[in-house]
Amino acid sequence: MAKETVQAVRKAETSAERLLKDALITKENLITEAQAKAKEMSTSMLKEAQSKAENDIKEAVRRGDIILEEARDEAEKEVQLLIEMAKTKEEEAIDLVISNVV
Question: Is the whole model's pTM more than 0.90, yes or no?
Fold first, then answer.
């Protein structure tokens, strides 16, 4: 009976050691997997942030171009208006000179 008890204890110890080794291997595998996932997520988030930043820059440039185009159009209208006003003033000045001469 003592021999059977000793064998049972040894068997339990062996089983416990195997379970401990399996648990350590599982722990290492989980840690490695978690690190890989964290690195993958970090890389993915970085790429996403870079892509968003690039899109934001493109949008800002596009908006800037629109603002510049609108400002140029407005300036051209103002120049045309000033030219027309100058022509009117020139005609008025010519008429005034002619009326003073005659």
Answer: no
